[in-house]
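Supplementary Methods. Inverse-folding protocol.

Structures were first reduced to a discrete structure-token string of length 217. This string, shown here, constituted the complete conditioning input.
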């Protein structure tokens, strides 16, 4: 009947190929887009540029909300907190970690955390903790409220390129150019699992499924 047809149509949508829904051009005189992040529930789109400026838009209308120059270096990493109010910005060239509260228009955190750059950043599900990774192979975990780094993991032998918290927030996964993906326990503060490719490889991204059962790199 009608209910069955509607269900079949809805199921069919999941099988449709991806398509381009819109384009937006940043007219910024020679600067390039270097990083971006999208907040699923609010439709916020955060874009970092090579001149140290970020732009915040709301999708799907691409409504411009805010732009600000926050660094002299390239913004290599950007992430919107799960709560949607904080923007984490990483500058690899200067080793900077910046957390900007876009609603109150004020800094929540400004740190020089990595000797060899802050190349990746990720928020914990509760928005109270964030992690950064650098070309120095280190993974640092920070308290948003105190602004302090409370643990540093030095297990990688090369640059760390991507980070992802597990859904429960009790563990953190990192990918590296050393060919490993490592899982860190944020309760006991240890590297409790290491994955390696069956052949020589360099990992540049990592993702965890909603149930925390599958890691892809």
């Amino acid at each position: 009947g009608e209910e069955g047809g509607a269900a079949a149509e809805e199921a069919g949508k999941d099988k449709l190929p991806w398509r381009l829904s819109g384009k937006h051009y940043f007219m910024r005189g020679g600067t390039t887009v270097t990083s971006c992040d999208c907040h699923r529930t609010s439709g916020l789109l955060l874009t970092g540029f090579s001149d140290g400026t970020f732009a915040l838009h709301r999708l799907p209308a691409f409504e411009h909300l805010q732009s600000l120059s926050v660094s002299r270096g390239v913004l290599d990493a950007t992430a919107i907190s799960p709560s949607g109010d904080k923007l984490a910005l990483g500058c690899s060239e200067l080793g900077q970690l910046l957390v900007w509260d876009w609603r109150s228009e004020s800094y929540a955190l400004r740190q020089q955390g990595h000797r060899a750059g802050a190349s990746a950043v990720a928020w914990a599900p509760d928005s109270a903790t964030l992690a950064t990774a650098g070309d120095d192979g280190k993974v640092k975990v920070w308290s948003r409220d105190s602004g302090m780094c409370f643990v540093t993991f030095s297990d990688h032998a090369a640059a760390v390129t991507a980070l992802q918290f597990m859904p429960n927030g009790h563990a953190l996964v990192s990918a590296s150019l050393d060919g490993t993906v490592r899982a860190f326990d944020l309760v006991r503060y240890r590297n409790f699992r290491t994955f390696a490719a069956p052949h020589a490889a360099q990992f540049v991204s990592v993702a965890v499924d909603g149930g925390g059962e599958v890691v892809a790199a």
